[in-house]
Amino acid sequence: MITSADADVFARCIHAHGVAVFPADTVYGLACDPDADAAVQRLYALKGRRPDKPAAVMFFSLDLALAALPELDRRTRAALERLLPGGVTVLLPNPSRRFPLACGPDPDTLGLRVPALPDPLAPLAAMRWPVLQSSANRTGEPAPRRRRTARNRVDGGRPARLRARGPLEHRACGSGG
Q1: 16 contacts 173 by C-beta, under 8 angstroms
Q2: What is the pLDDT of residues 45-68, one digit of tens each?
Q3: Residue 46: which of 170, 168, 152, 167 has the closest Cα?
Q4: Per-residue confidence band for 175, with pLDDT thresholds at 50, 70 and 90
Q5: What would the pLDDT profile of 108-154 be if each residue is shown by its tens digit?
Q6: SS3 at position 31
Q7: Could you give all domains of the chain from N- to C-terminal order, each with its CATH number?
Q8: Which 8-state DSSP code applies to residue 172?
């Protein structure tokens, strides 16, 4: 269970251009500010991921996602309202080239996530801005579904560990290299 205080620590870490480990609706994830180049580079380095591989941008509210992407047409919005929130990444046309650090070599396509937030994760809905997100594992390894696995999968550096009454232990936000 994540508390409001835990969600506040998560938000402060992202705002400070740190990298955080957090429990999402599907697997544990790494998150950072999608517009902070150094944070995105650090997240990719922690995963051992090539910088030309795209990542998803996660909003914690469908309304916020739709507001941030005003160029989406009515049909696309209607489809998103049927699919999200949920455990899927939707690839969208990105004619405004928003969130270029998440798009990799194809800035015209954006991966969008809006997680389902069951009661134990509900305080994350307080996040008012998006994060660049990827699973908390080294590239090519299985995605972690348990706290201990998430903590041990990512080598090098020390991402913040969002405490969720068991799922992760909080440490200072990992904003340095």
Answers
A1: yes
A2: 988 899 899 999 999 999 999 999
A3: 152
A4: very low
A5: 999 999 999 999 999 999 999 999 999 988 888 777 676 665 655 55
A6: strand
A7: 4-161 (3.90.870.10)
A8: S
Two tokens, residue 52: 């030309």
With tokens 């609706």, the residue in question is 25
- Long-range pairs for 5-10: beta carbons < 8 A, 24 or more residues apart: 6/123, 6/162, 6/163, 6/164, 6/170, 7/123, 7/124, 7/126, 7/127, 8/126, 9/160, 9/162, 9/163, 9/170, 9/173, 10/124, 10/127, 10/160, 10/162
Of 165, 157, 163, 172, nearest to 39 by C-alpha is: 157
* pTM of the predicted structure, to 2 decimals: 0.85
DSSP 71: T
Query: Both tokens of residue 47?
Result: 């995963």
Q: In whole angstroms, what is the distance from residue 109 CA to residue 44 CA?
A: 19
